[in-house]
Amino acid sequence: MKTRFENGVIITGNKQNAWFKQGYMVIEDNKIVEIGDAEIEVGSSNAQYDQIIDLKGRWVMPGWVNTHGHAAMSLLRGYADDLPLKEWLEQKMWPMEGQFNADTVRAGTALAVVEMLKTGTTCFLDMYDHMSTVAKVVEESGIRAVLARGVIGLCPEEEQIRKLQEATQFALEWDHQANGRITTMMSPHAPYTCPPHYIQNIIEQAAKHQLPVHIHMSETAREVQQNVDDYGKRPVAHLRDLGVFELPTLVAHAVHVNEEEMDILQQYDVKVAHNPTSNLKLGSGIAPVPSYLKRGITVSLGTDSAASNNKLDMFQEARLAALIHKGAGEDPLAVPAEEALRMGTKWGAESVFLSQVGALEVGMEADFITINPNQAHLQPAHQPISHIIYSATGQDVEDVYVQGKQIVKNKECLFLDEERIIYEANQAFQKLNQV
Amino acid sequence: MKTRFENGVIITGNKQNAWFKQGYMVIEDNKIVEIGDAEIEVGSSNAQYDQIIDLKGRWVMPGWVNTHGHAAMSLLRGYADDLPLKEWLEQKMWPMEGQFNADTVRAGTALAVVEMLKTGTTCFLDMYDHMSTVAKVVEESGIRAVLARGVIGLCPEEEQIRKLQEATQFALEWDHQANGRITTMMSPHAPYTCPPHYIQNIIEQAAKHQLPVHIHMSETAREVQQNVDDYGKRPVAHLRDLGVFELPTLVAHAVHVNEEEMDILQQYDVKVAHNPTSNLKLGSGIAPVPSYLKRGITVSLGTDSAASNNKLDMFQEARLAALIHKGAGEDPLAVPAEEALRMGTKWGAESVFLSQVGALEVGMEADFITINPNQAHLQPAHQPISHIIYSATGQDVEDVYVQGKQIVKNKECLFLDEERIIYEANQAFQKLNQV
Fold first, then answer.
1. If we measure between CA atoms, which residue out of A208, A108, A224, A124 comes closest to residue A167?
2. Which residues of B touch A104 (CB under 8 A)?
């Protein structure tokens, strides 16, 4: 099966930052086999394609890669806003999450996946519990995902052992499943929720099975201080000394990180998932993203969960990433639009250790989205990259493809029943004993 | 003509912050004559209405009031991003704007009004040139507006005089026109673009004709320093000493304002238009909004122009206002959702000196919008105010009413031809000699 998409504005997201005004792209099975500008194309013959799709001037870009989140928590959207982080987490989130079972997780995850797909995310990282349930939603929906059973070690040793076994078993069972759309990681929740020996046990398993590691790190100033109080060092040195960074690692947040710690992140090629909305909303602070970028540290974008965002639209994260560092540093040159786009696509894929997606290039798997530019807020229409970052939202997305297969068509998910999922999410929420 | 809207979730935006789960609202001619919750309603009879509209569970809220902008500059959306402010303004914006004529202004303003209406803004402040053209677009579209010919005094005296005459004449001619939907202000552009005597001449006219004043103030640190260098005082003292604050005044930006200056703003009841996106994007900084609110200073929200935003969606401004002050101050309690909503509605109306709009209450003119909550990103649907601020965008707006008259129906402007306006905006942009 060979399909030619033509007559679109194609933003490749590749290293040269190329974009094609009269773009075409040929997809064979799940891969891009040709891409370029029709104005300089030679030797194309329609006879060679099974199907030709006219993009009618639509903008095409790589699907967003959301590198940090907890999908099931979409059920708690708006449940407890505008509270101090500790109270929000300990008195609101944890007691509610304590009631989550596989059905709750299915309802919340399906809700999240509908929202992500409709707003142009083609790959998301999920760190949560009941991960087989999450994996099944991923399989059914057509989206791509990087999944990890997040483990919190604040429990008796036998429970620690059980959780770690579960996490490892899940990672091994689901890695490369769903036609390769699912990959897995190992995930100690955070330095402040996992004792040092437990983090070591987890990364031993990761090393043994060649799985990358995902962990929350230095989200709040308080948590950094606690790490110093408990272990005599800041989180970056702590994790390095535990051997975590010997493995491919993605840290989430990295808001409170000093220059010396950046040296370490840079040295070990640790990837950073920047979660601008969540860090703002919880009052955690503003991550030193311009410094990370200057050092060549790979920075990607995450929504975190809808309980602290309160949405899962990567256009919003990219816009915010392009805006807040300019304002906070009083530097209008910080995080230009092209870098924000890359953080959400190419660098996102690199952050979750996928090499086959994140840009539209020959040989890549065809994960892409289309946007209808024929709307007032995207005019004049001469600067698609600027408009994608500063002016568009996820609601401008029309079609979504993963591995060359269409999974959203004209704003409708093809493999998920949105109406039923909305109904079930509300039912699942009502069933929880609200605290 | 008496119309009853029923079966909606009505967010009144009034002082008690009331919202009705089974809301109804009765509009007679252009005003709200009844509003409440059907569950506790007594004595309603359908016979008394000319028309009954079933809101089918939609959320209803006051239309947004956008208190600072330059609509015509939508033509320059994405034209010059990611540049230092001085270069952006002097080398990009001003040379392009220097070529604007009435046709350009019409094209840009119509584009802006389509975008604002479709994203739920029912009233906008515009400070620009060719204001009769702007007023005509307002008249035709059905939107409400507060208009001022912004005058820059960096020119020979005779031109200053001509501009001031033009501004005064415009203000007198259009005040209370378009069925009262248009009101006018006088607007010296900024302390750094108007010599002191010229500001005094302008406010003399404002005082004479009882018009309020709108002015840019303390947007950047550099501009504050320049004011000190040129006049020996910071902008707030400078404007107070010139007598500006003796008149009802709305200042735009107010990013770099110290405690002493806040005392003055508070003393004179000066209103502040907070433009979070624009201040971030241009690297101007983050306004001390939590301090303003603590003092009871009226803070409202503005998009500024699409050249520095790059959109005109007040949902985005409200979201950003609710987010950035939490992050910048590491205080998750700063600017809760309810305050962000009020900044965009009630306090917006107060900032542009309108008492008949900004909340849904008996006696108010009926400027309101509806949102379809039946979407994944607004679920679970139990917290409409949270979801409006943190999760919705302007693209969730379905219907818009101004003075009880419907002007957007199912996401389409009823009195503007969006397709033609998009075409004309692109044509007008192409005609400019790009610098």
1. A208
2. none
Radius of gyration of chain B (CA): 21
Task: Tell me the C-alpha to C-alpha distance, in Å, between residue B204 and each of A343, B124, B197, B216, B246.
Answer: 52, 25, 10, 18, 11
| Exposure b/e, B406-428, CB count within 10 A at least 16 = b | ebbeebebeebebeebbebbbeb
What is the C-alpha to C-alpha distance for residues A3 and A51, in angstroms, rounded to an integer? Answer: 5
Crossing angle for the helix pair A314-328 and A337-344, to the nearest 10 degrees: 140
**Backbone phi, then psi, for B407, in 5-degree steps?**
-120, -15
Please answer whether residues A358 and A346 qualify as being in contact, where contact means their C-beta atoms are separated by less than 8 angstroms.
yes
Q: Are A190 and A217 in contact (CB under 8 A)?
A: yes
Residues 6+ apart with CB under 8 A from A243: A200, A203
B2-62+359-413 CATH pick, 2.30.40.10, 3.90.550.10, 1.20.210.10, 3.60.21.10: 2.30.40.10
* B53 in contact with A, Cβ within 8 Å: no
Domain ranges of chain B: 2-62+359-413, 64-351
Residues of B in contact with A312 (CB under 8 A): 377
CATH of domain A64-351: 3.20.20.140
Confirm whether residue B189 is marked as ligand binding.
yes
Spatial CB neighbours of A344, under 8 Å, sequence gap ≥ 6: A64, A65, A300, A301, A314, A317, A318, A321
**Beta carbons of B309 and A390 less than 8 Å apart:** yes
Q: What is the rounded distance in angstroms from the CA atom of residue A244 to the CA atom of residue A223?
A: 18
SS3 B402: strand
Decide: B289 and B283 in contact? Cβ < 8 Å. no
CATH architecture classification, A2-62+358-413: Roll (2.30)
Q: Is A372 exposed, middle or buried (0-12, 13-18, 19+ CB in 10 A)?
A: middle
Residues 6+ apart with CB under 8 A from B334: A283, B289, B290, B325, B326
Dist CA A215 CA A143 (whole Å)? 23
Question: How close B254 gets to chain A, by Cα (Å)?
Answer: 14
Best to test chain B binding among A225, A253, A279, A330 (most B CBs inside 10 Å): A330
d(C-alpha A227, C-alpha A248), whole Å: 22
CA distance A411 to A408: 6
Tokens of B187: 């607007």
CB atoms A380 and B418 under 8 Å: no
pLDDT in tens, chain A (435 residues): 999 999 999 999 998 888 999 999 999 999 999 999 988 777 666 778 999 999 999 999 999 999 999 999 999 999 999 888 888 888 999 999 999 999 999 999 999 999 999 999 999 999 999 999 999 999 999 999 999 999 999 999 999 999 999 999 999 999 999 999 999 999 999 999 999 999 999 999 999 999 999 999 999 999 999 999 999 999 999 999 999 999 999 999 999 999 999 999 999 999 999 999 999 999 999 999 999 999 999 999 999 999 999 999 999 999 999 999 999 999 999 999 999 999 999 999 999 999 999 999 999 999 999 999 999 999 999 899 999 999 999 999 999 999 999 999 999 999 999 999 999 999 999 999 887
Check CB contact of A303 with chain B, cutoff 8 Å: no
